[in-house]
Amino acid sequence: MDLIPFLDRKRVARVVATAGTPVYVYDEATLRRQAAAALSFPSAFGLTARYAMKACPNAAILRLFAEAGMAIDASSGYEVARAIRAGVDPARISLSTQELPEDFAEWVRKGVTVNACSLGQLERFGRAFPGGRIGLRINPGLGSGGTTKTNTGGPASSFGIWHELLPQADEIIARHELVVFRIHSHIGSGSDPDVWVRVASMTLSFVEKYASVTHCNLGGGYKVARMPHEKGTDLRVIGTPVKRLFEEFAARTGRRLHLEIEPGTFMVANAGAIVTRIQDIITTGESGYRFLKLDTGMTELARPSLYGAQHPMKVVPANDEGSVRGEAEYIATGHCCESGDMLTPKAGEPETLEPRRLLEARVGDHLVIGGAGAYASAMATINYNSFPQAPEVLLRENGDVVLIRRRQTLDQVLQNEVLPSA
Ligand SMILES: *Cc1c(COP(=O)(O)O)cnc(C)c1O
């Protein structure tokens, strides 16, 4: 089974000719397919599907999703600015952030909506916009993330206003005469419809307390299968019971709520790959391992070192000399002088090596790493060991390869350094 179907040998060669290695490749056909899937999430009374842009914020991707009909979820003031520069209408941007920027009022005046993620944020918003419209991000006390690092709900998560503190929120809301128009909850990665029904029910119970709420945002966290043994999310399966809950809520209360979802991972994870070059192959003897040393690593993909995340891989021979190759087991390792820079961990165990069976590799071959569209380019340890940030290309539906971010130069790596005078 080809785990990275949009990159065959010919396309890899074209990508490398365009931008060298390492390089991120995004497949336009997959991006459009995911946008269509998100936009057809079952909804009873209308839907806004927001792309959680922190997953992969390149302007070409923001524009593609915006043109497909998606709105934007931004995680910082800088992301808001970036989306606007990419051409997104500010009124289509919602900000849910851990750090409400000093200049947030400017964005709000342009049309950006805000979900208050703490009592402090709510107070600041109220002071700037008495009588204004605000969303509340609530931590409902329940989480479903894969690890504590990806869990965004429950007492160990700092995201959102803790549900028991809502009386304090109400005091701030009343004092500034704020209008709560949206309730937001985003509790982390999951593919289990029962968990989504529980989250939706809890979120609706908060909606019920605020008569002014017209929008209910269930966040993102739709798990995707990068590896064959992983389980992805079928949005119809998740969404159908949620739709029913909204219908029941309307029948009971007369309120027809607009649904919002905010997928990040789901939109881009399997639309992206990293094309790398195998620059050395070493062994640590009979009882050791064979290591593929790549021209990439945590500088392009931190997820394996951070979470023990597994990504599909395939060896693409550089020269098609016609010889038949066998298979072998390898550890794929990064180019940083850092023992944690390793790309084939045991699932969920970043400290443990797990050899991967691959086509027998030679120095100069390409190793293609799949599932690298989400939190790859966006979350890498850029410039560690002074490696320049890698370029990004878009693989168009017609097969063209177009550059959407250049490779950083050493001058750019150093441009903000200032030497003190001697
Ligand atoms: C990160 C984030 C998302 C997207 O999460 P995924 O797991 O990538 O789908 C959605 N909403 C908010 C508020 C987020 O912070």
Shape, please?
globular
What's the CATH topology label of the largest domain? Answer: TIM Barrel
CATH superfamily of the largest domain: Alanine racemase
Give the termini distance in whole angstroms. Answer: 61 Å
Largest beta-sheet characterization: 9 strands, mixed
Residue-averaged pLDDT, rounded? 94
Query: Helix segment count?
Result: 12
Bound ligands, named by name, code or SMILES: pyridoxal-5'-phosphate
Question: How many DSSP-defined strands?
Answer: 20
Q: Roughly how many Å is the radius of gyration? A: 23 Å
CATH class of the largest domain: Alpha Beta
How many separate structural domains? 2
The CATH architecture designation of the largest domain is Alpha-Beta Barrel
Question: Could you name the ranges where pLDDT drops below 50 across 5 or more consecutive residues?
Answer: none
- Judged by helices, strands and strand pairing, the structural class is alpha/beta
Query: Helix fraction?
Result: 25-40%
Q: What fraction of the residues are assigned to beta strands by DSSP? A: 15-25%
Your description of this structure?
The chain is of the alpha/beta class. The protein has two domains: 28-268, Alpha-Beta Barrel (TIM Barrel), CATH 3.20.20; 269-406, Lyase, Ornithine Decarboxylase, Chain A, domain 1. Helix content is 28%, strand content 23%. The chain is built from twelve helices and 20 strands. The protein has helices at 9-19, 28-39, 59-68, 77-85, 104-110, 119-128, 166-175, 193-209, 235-253, 265-268, 303-307, 410-414, and strands at residues 23-27, 47-52, 71-74, 93-95, 113-116, 133-139, 161-162, 179-184, 215-217, 258-261, 272-283, 290-294, 313-316, 327-333, 345-346, 349-353, 356-359, 366-369, 392-395, 401-405. Strands 1, 11, 12, 13, 14, 17, 18, 19 and 20 form a nine-stranded mixed β-sheet that branches. Helix 8 runs parallel beside helix 9 (235-253). It is globular and about 70 Å long. The mean pLDDT is 94. Bound molecules: pyridoxal-5'-phosphate. Pyridoxal-5'-phosphate binds next to helix 10.
